[in-house]
């Protein structure tokens, strides 16, 4: 009877060790926790998070003026992953793993009782950035300067069309270099 009891204790111990080992391996498999883990795979490939409209916080929006005539040619609506705004308000920095998603809409412009109004038309795509304070993907050309960067056409939120952030993304953000590549002035929540 003692041998059976001892064997039971040993088997229970081995089960606990196995569960702890599996948990530890699962935790180290992903380079990020939280929102970024759902956006970044182990090779640093990004995708548009499926829940950004319901789980993320709206930061603000931008209107890009038409080159000819009144109104806007594009509207940009920007979202931040849960906890990003609170962390930024606490210490003035984007936390590691923060995800920013910018929806880009082609605008439609019409005359209304309030005047000439532009509104969101068809979705053109998304621009996704993930804060990377650890330099996790040095061999991936979509990561650098503290962020992962990717553009996605509206037809495929899982496959970026970007190939190199320095050529495809960074030029548009150059004026915001001193504010961690983000145009914070467009987001009132960061300027409180």
TrEMBL record:
Start and end residues of each Cytochrome P460 domain: 49-183
Keyword Membrane: no
One Pfam family matching this protein: Cytochrome_P460
Source taxon at top rank: Bacteria
Annotated keywords: Plasmid
Protein name: Cytochrome C
Lineage: Bacteria, Pseudomonadati, Pseudomonadota, Alphaproteobacteria, Hyphomicrobiales
């Amino acid at each position: 009877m003692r041998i059976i009891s001892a064997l039971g204790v040993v088997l229970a111990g081995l089960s606990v060790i196995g569960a702890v080992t599996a948990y530890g391996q699962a935790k180290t498999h992903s380079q990020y926790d939280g929102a970024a883990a759902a956006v970044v795979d182990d090779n640093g490939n990004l995708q548009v998070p499926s829940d950004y409209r319901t789980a993320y916080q709206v930061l603000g929006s931008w209107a890009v003026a038409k080159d000819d005539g009144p109104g806007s040619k594009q509207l940009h609506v920007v979202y931040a992953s849960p906890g990003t705004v609170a962390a930024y308000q606490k210490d003035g920095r984007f936390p590691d793993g923060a995800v920013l998603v910018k929806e880009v809409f082609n605008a439609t412009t019409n005359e209304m009782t309030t005047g000439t109004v532009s509104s969101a038309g068809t979705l053109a795509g998304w621009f996704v950035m993930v804060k990377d304070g650890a330099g996790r993907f040095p061999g991936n050309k979509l990561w650098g300067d503290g962020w992962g960067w990717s553009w996605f056409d509206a037809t495929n939120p899982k496959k970026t069309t970007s190939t190199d952030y320095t050529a495809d993304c960074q030029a548009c953000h150059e004026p915001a270099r001193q504010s961690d590549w983000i145009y914070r002035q467009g987001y009132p929540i960061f300027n409180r």
